[in-house]
TrEMBL record:
This is GTPase IMAP family member 8-like protein. Residues 1-69 are annotated as: Disordered. Residues 1-32, 40-69 have a biased composition (Basic and acidic residues).
Length: 210
Protein backbone atom coordinates (compact mmCIF):
# COMPACT_ATOMS: atom_id res chain seq x y z
CA UNK A 1 0.00 0.00 0.00
CA UNK A 2 2.71 2.45 0.99
CA UNK A 3 4.56 1.72 -2.25
CA UNK A 4 1.46 2.90 -4.09
CA UNK A 5 1.33 6.00 -1.89
CA UNK A 6 4.98 6.72 -2.58
CA UNK A 7 4.39 6.32 -6.32
CA UNK A 8 1.41 8.69 -6.22
CA UNK A 9 3.37 11.25 -4.23
CA UNK A 10 6.29 11.04 -6.66
CA UNK A 11 3.92 11.58 -9.60
CA UNK A 12 2.39 14.59 -7.83
CA UNK A 13 5.83 16.06 -7.15
CA UNK A 14 6.81 15.62 -10.81
CA UNK A 15 3.58 17.34 -11.85
CA UNK A 16 4.20 20.24 -9.45
CA UNK A 17 7.78 20.64 -10.67
CA UNK A 18 6.61 20.65 -14.30
CA UNK A 19 3.95 23.28 -13.57
CA UNK A 20 6.44 25.47 -11.66
CA UNK A 21 9.00 25.19 -14.46
CA UNK A 22 6.40 26.42 -16.94
CA UNK A 23 5.46 29.25 -14.57
CA UNK A 24 9.15 30.14 -14.12
CA UNK A 25 9.70 30.16 -17.90
CA UNK A 26 6.68 32.42 -18.44
CA UNK A 27 7.78 34.91 -15.75
CA UNK A 28 11.36 34.93 -17.06
CA UNK A 29 10.01 35.85 -20.49
CA UNK A 30 8.03 38.69 -18.88
CA UNK A 31 11.19 39.91 -17.11
CA UNK A 32 13.16 39.74 -20.36
CA UNK A 33 10.47 41.69 -22.18
CA UNK A 34 10.52 44.38 -19.46
CA UNK A 35 14.32 44.52 -19.62
CA UNK A 36 14.34 44.90 -23.42
CA UNK A 37 11.65 47.58 -23.21
CA UNK A 38 13.61 49.61 -20.64
CA UNK A 39 16.80 49.15 -22.66
CA UNK A 40 15.12 50.34 -25.83
CA UNK A 41 13.70 53.34 -23.97
CA UNK A 42 17.12 54.50 -22.69
CA UNK A 43 18.59 54.08 -26.19
CA UNK A 44 15.83 56.23 -27.67
CA UNK A 45 16.31 58.88 -24.97
CA UNK A 46 20.07 58.98 -25.53
CA UNK A 47 19.63 59.11 -29.29
CA UNK A 48 17.26 62.06 -28.90
CA UNK A 49 19.76 63.89 -26.65
CA UNK A 50 22.59 63.14 -29.07
CA UNK A 51 20.54 64.48 -31.94
CA UNK A 52 19.85 67.68 -30.00
CA UNK A 53 23.59 68.06 -29.38
CA UNK A 54 24.31 67.59 -33.10
CA UNK A 55 21.74 70.23 -33.96
CA UNK A 56 23.34 72.67 -31.51
CA UNK A 57 26.75 71.86 -32.97
CA UNK A 58 25.63 72.61 -36.53
CA UNK A 59 23.97 75.82 -35.39
CA UNK A 60 27.13 77.01 -33.62
CA UNK A 61 29.27 76.08 -36.63
CA UNK A 62 27.06 78.23 -38.81
CA UNK A 63 27.42 81.07 -36.32
CA UNK A 64 31.22 80.69 -36.38
CA UNK A 65 31.24 80.81 -40.19
CA UNK A 66 29.18 84.00 -40.18
CA UNK A 67 31.55 85.58 -37.69
CA UNK A 68 34.51 84.50 -39.81
CA UNK A 69 32.95 86.23 -42.81
CA UNK A 70 32.41 89.36 -40.74
CA UNK A 71 36.01 89.26 -39.49
CA UNK A 72 37.33 89.06 -43.05
CA UNK A 73 35.59 92.34 -43.79
CA UNK A 74 37.54 94.04 -41.04
CA UNK A 75 40.10 96.35 -42.69
CA UNK A 76 42.35 96.75 -39.66
CA UNK A 77 44.68 93.75 -39.73
CA UNK A 78 45.49 93.89 -35.99
CA UNK A 79 41.83 93.98 -35.04
CA UNK A 80 41.07 91.24 -37.58
CA UNK A 81 43.74 88.92 -36.13
CA UNK A 82 42.52 89.50 -32.58
CA UNK A 83 38.93 88.76 -33.54
CA UNK A 84 40.04 85.63 -35.38
CA UNK A 85 42.03 84.44 -32.36
CA UNK A 86 39.07 84.93 -30.00
CA UNK A 87 36.75 83.17 -32.42
CA UNK A 88 39.08 80.17 -32.66
CA UNK A 89 39.30 80.00 -28.85
CA UNK A 90 35.51 80.03 -28.57
CA UNK A 91 35.26 77.37 -31.24
CA UNK A 92 37.83 75.17 -29.50
CA UNK A 93 36.09 75.52 -26.12
CA UNK A 94 32.76 74.66 -27.70
CA UNK A 95 34.20 71.56 -29.41
CA UNK A 96 35.80 70.40 -26.14
CA UNK A 97 32.54 70.93 -24.27
CA UNK A 98 30.66 69.03 -26.96
CA UNK A 99 33.12 66.11 -26.74
CA UNK A 100 32.71 65.98 -22.95
CA UNK A 101 28.93 65.87 -23.30
CA UNK A 102 29.17 63.12 -25.94
CA UNK A 103 31.45 61.08 -23.69
CA UNK A 104 29.24 61.64 -20.62
CA UNK A 105 26.17 60.63 -22.61
CA UNK A 106 27.86 57.42 -23.78
CA UNK A 107 29.00 56.59 -20.23
CA UNK A 108 25.53 57.33 -18.88
CA UNK A 109 23.98 54.97 -21.40
CA UNK A 110 26.49 52.19 -20.67
CA UNK A 111 26.06 52.60 -16.91
CA UNK A 112 22.31 52.37 -17.25
CA UNK A 113 22.60 49.30 -19.47
CA UNK A 114 24.87 47.66 -16.87
CA UNK A 115 22.38 48.59 -14.16
CA UNK A 116 19.52 47.05 -16.13
CA UNK A 117 21.51 43.86 -16.73
CA UNK A 118 22.37 43.55 -13.04
CA UNK A 119 18.77 44.30 -12.05
CA UNK A 120 17.47 41.74 -14.54
CA UNK A 121 19.86 39.03 -13.26
CA UNK A 122 18.92 39.73 -9.62
CA UNK A 123 15.20 39.61 -10.40
CA UNK A 124 15.73 36.40 -12.38
CA UNK A 125 17.65 34.81 -9.49
CA UNK A 126 15.04 35.97 -6.99
CA UNK A 127 12.28 34.53 -9.17
CA UNK A 128 14.04 31.16 -9.45
CA UNK A 129 14.53 30.98 -5.68
CA UNK A 130 10.87 31.90 -5.11
CA UNK A 131 9.65 29.24 -7.55
CA UNK A 132 11.92 26.59 -5.99
CA UNK A 133 10.69 27.49 -2.50
CA UNK A 134 7.03 27.38 -3.56
CA UNK A 135 7.59 24.08 -5.39
CA UNK A 136 9.17 22.48 -2.34
CA UNK A 137 6.46 23.80 0.01
CA UNK A 138 3.61 22.67 -2.24
CA UNK A 139 5.15 19.22 -2.74
CA UNK A 140 5.73 18.77 1.01
CA UNK A 141 2.19 19.94 1.83
CA UNK A 142 0.57 17.58 -0.67
CA UNK A 143 2.88 14.79 0.50
CA UNK A 144 1.77 15.25 4.13
CA UNK A 145 -1.92 15.40 3.20
CA UNK A 146 -1.69 12.28 1.06
CA UNK A 147 0.32 10.40 3.68
CA UNK A 148 -2.06 11.37 6.50
CA UNK A 149 -5.05 10.12 4.49
CA UNK A 150 -3.37 6.81 3.68
CA UNK A 151 -2.20 6.30 7.28
CA UNK A 152 -5.71 7.06 8.58
CA UNK A 153 -7.14 4.60 6.06
CA UNK A 154 -4.61 1.93 7.07
CA UNK A 155 -5.33 2.45 10.77
CA UNK A 156 -9.07 2.22 10.16
CA UNK A 157 -8.65 -1.03 8.23
CA UNK A 158 -6.40 -2.42 10.97
CA UNK A 159 -8.93 -1.38 13.62
CA UNK A 160 -11.70 -3.20 11.77
CA UNK A 161 -9.65 -6.41 11.77
CA UNK A 162 -9.08 -6.34 15.55
CA UNK A 163 -11.39 -8.88 17.36
CA UNK A 164 -14.16 -7.42 19.54
CA UNK A 165 -12.70 -9.04 22.68
CA UNK A 166 -9.45 -7.11 22.17
CA UNK A 167 -11.29 -3.85 21.49
CA UNK A 168 -13.55 -4.20 24.54
CA UNK A 169 -10.66 -5.25 26.80
CA UNK A 170 -8.68 -2.22 25.66
CA UNK A 171 -11.57 0.23 25.97
CA UNK A 172 -12.87 -1.01 29.35
CA UNK A 173 -9.42 -1.23 30.89
CA UNK A 174 -9.15 2.55 30.51
CA UNK A 175 -11.92 2.93 33.10
CA UNK A 176 -11.21 -0.08 35.37
CA UNK A 177 -7.58 -1.17 34.82
CA UNK A 178 -7.73 -4.90 35.63
CA UNK A 179 -11.35 -5.96 36.00
CA UNK A 180 -12.43 -3.71 33.17
CA UNK A 181 -10.04 -5.44 30.80
CA UNK A 182 -11.25 -8.90 31.85
CA UNK A 183 -14.93 -7.95 31.65
CA UNK A 184 -14.43 -6.16 28.35
CA UNK A 185 -12.67 -9.19 26.93
CA UNK A 186 -15.55 -11.44 27.99
CA UNK A 187 -18.17 -9.17 26.45
CA UNK A 188 -16.09 -8.83 23.31
CA UNK A 189 -15.80 -12.62 23.04
CA UNK A 190 -19.59 -12.91 23.06
CA UNK A 191 -19.75 -10.24 20.33
CA UNK A 192 -17.18 -12.16 18.28
CA UNK A 193 -19.29 -15.34 18.57
CA UNK A 194 -22.47 -13.48 17.59
CA UNK A 195 -20.79 -11.91 14.56
CA UNK A 196 -19.31 -15.27 13.59
CA UNK A 197 -22.77 -16.88 13.72
CA UNK A 198 -24.23 -14.03 11.64
CA UNK A 199 -21.51 -14.36 9.00
CA UNK A 200 -21.88 -18.16 8.96
CA UNK A 201 -25.65 -17.92 8.59
CA UNK A 202 -25.34 -15.35 5.80
CA UNK A 203 -22.80 -17.53 4.01
CA UNK A 204 -24.99 -20.67 4.27
CA UNK A 205 -28.04 -18.77 3.09
CA UNK A 206 -26.16 -17.48 0.08
CA UNK A 207 -25.03 -21.00 -0.87
CA UNK A 208 -28.58 -22.39 -0.54
CA UNK A 209 -29.96 -19.66 -2.76
CA UNK A 210 -27.41 -20.57 -5.39
Amino acid sequence: MFQKVEKNIKEQQERIIKEKKEENKRKEEELRATYNEELEQIKKTNERERQEMQNKLRKREEEFKKKEEEIKKETDEIVRKELQRKLEEQQKLFEEENERKEKALGEQQQNFINYLKEKHEKEKQKLQEKIQHETREQAECEYREKLEKEVAKALKEAEERVPFRSKRARDWSQYVPVLGGVAGGAVGSVEDIVHWIIRKTSSTKSKNEE
